[in-house]
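HUMAN: Please help interpret these tokens:
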Amino acid sequence: MTTKRLVRISYFTMLTIIGGLISIPIPGAPIKLTFQTLFVILSGMILGGKDGAFAQIAYMAIGLIGLPIFSAGGGFDYVLRPSFGYILSFPLAAFVTGALISKQKTLNPFKLFLCAFCGCLCNYAVGVSYQVLIVAFYTGSGIIAALGGLATIPLMLLKDAVLIFLACLLYPRIMTMIGKPNEQIEKNEETGVQP
């Protein structure tokens, strides 16, 4: 692994930390709105599947060893919080996003969004399942209470979809800024098709 790759991975670990520290409580819900999902998906988009997943594994490890980088602290006991399922899914979400993008011969904002949104759906599938299990069985609130806490999920998914769409529009510029122009998009520009 080169120094350049390590630096890029660490940037996205840091961005995920920052995204988690910017959090908005949701009344009546056991989780908070954060900007982590955006940076998780961006790590897969920009670094690729493997390096995006490494960035998220590093984020999870740093929080689990005790540094208070998660939205409500840190430490190994965080695995018993309802929101930990979302964190647990971050490497998978980044990997799926990067892997799907790498399989595309050409990219445009719509294809990019579909790939990124698939990664986002992985995040929600694992996160929601974990949240229900913890609330229903660990906290003893019961399955009805666990399912009632899911009412905010559509709002969070909409927020993430909008942020991911904006990131997809900025993707070609971001790739150029970091000195990693995307060949899939360059092919589009050569043929006169706008990404």
Q: What stands out?
A: Residues 109-138 form the longest helix (30 residues). DSSP finds eight helices and two strands in the chain. Residues 109 and 168 are 6 Å apart (CA to CA). Strands lie at 23-25, 32-34.
